[in-house]
Amino acid sequence: MNIIDELEWRDAINQTTDEDGLRELTAEKSVGLYCGVDPTGDSMHIGHLIPFMMLKRFQLAGHHPYIIIGGGTGSIGDPSGKNSERVLQSMEQVHHNEQALTAQMTKLFGQDSNISIVNNYDWLSKISLLDFLRDYGKLFNVNSMLAKDVVASRLEVGISFTEFTYQILQSVDFLHLLRHHDVQLQIGGADQWGNITAGIDLIHKELGSDTKAYGLTIPLMLKADGTKFGKTAGGAVWLNPEKTTPYEFYQFWLNQDDRDVVKYLKFFTFLTSDQIAEYQKSVETAPEKREAQRRLAREVTEFVHSPEAVIEAEHISAALFSGEVKELTTSEIEQGFKNMPSVELAAEPENIVELLVNTKIESSKRQAREDITNGAIRINGEKIQDLDFVINPAKEFDGKFVIIRRGKKKYWLGRVNG
Fold first, then answer.
1. At which positions is motif 'HIGH' region (predicted)?
2. Is 232 annotated in the active site?
3. Local confidence band at 417 (pLDDT 50, 70, 90 cut-offs)
4. % of residues, the chain, pLDDT over 70
5. Is 223 a catalytic residue?
6. How far is residue 40's CA from residue 22's CA, in Å, rounded to a whole number?
7. Binding-site entries for ATP
8. Taking CA 73 as the corner, what is the angle to CA 122 and CA 65, rounded to the nearest 5 degrees?
9. Which of 115, 146, 293, 386 could, after both became Cys, cross-link 109 (CB 3.0–4.6 A)?
10. Does residue 86 carry a catalytic annotation?
11. What is the DSSP letter of 25?
12. Which residue positions form the known binding site?
């Protein structure tokens, strides 16, 4: 199947500048294509995965992706999707973020010869102001720039000249990559259409109207309830495991709505149409098994993190569901209990009744004794009904944690001081 046909089947194409021409081009040669990410932070989130999954598909189909880490454009600020001016970062912060994003991209795409990671600071920083105005500014009509959605949406609240010039810099990127690396296709989110077409216009003015350069954008990803994909009550879902643990990442995908899961299997996995059709059938006939969500969570977690991260996430999930938390490692506890209530504990042994009251898990000694006697209290997975039981924090989990459970689902993580 041609890569363009596959993308259409996966509902991954929003707009193309010339779909037939792009289909022919990808059928006759290995195409250079690119997508960029600005280093506005030191980690990508799952929203960034959307265009880069496209690049990965092209890579697997034998084409050559180029990833631009926008050290140059990131120091300016993309107005796309923003209703107010960005706060400029220091160049030190930009360079720090560049290094972090480069490491993430290398992990996602590997280090083979069929992928190139470049930084547009390397060529944009060499353009003088006069050269910028004479060589590029002269080729951009202000009226046309104002008509682009990305600029027009900001005219009421205002846009600085700095952000106004962003589309010129992004256009220079496309021209540079075509000239030096034969990159003929730019991919981006739906909000990048104006910037992408501006780049193609620049290429045609500089290299001739018959130069083959194409643009492709991806649909805005919305959930079945109409809200934007990728946001949770806790904020963004990051690719950096220190910001969003692999367990949290796995859980995000596992908890997707039945109405969305097949769409996400098409977009975020490399499963075949026959495999996805089977999962679609399972959603319709046995939704309570959540087989599609489980496969989605496994596939994306393995792609972003590792097969070991999947095993660990599933181990944590099973332990929390069964209550067999004693089987967890210290690092698994850090992940699984990251967002659960926590209490501070002294390192010295303490009577169970005293500990429950001192940590305010129980409102009184009377209530603590009642819950213990009734078998409602578990310490590190073990039911405790002895009122004289002494909790020794040094006994389990490297002396760092005590897991306290009251009832069927109420957990607290005791963090040991000292």
1. 39-48
2. yes
3. confident
4. 98
5. no
6. 31
7. 231
8. 70
9. 115
10. yes
11. H
12. 34, 166, 170, 231
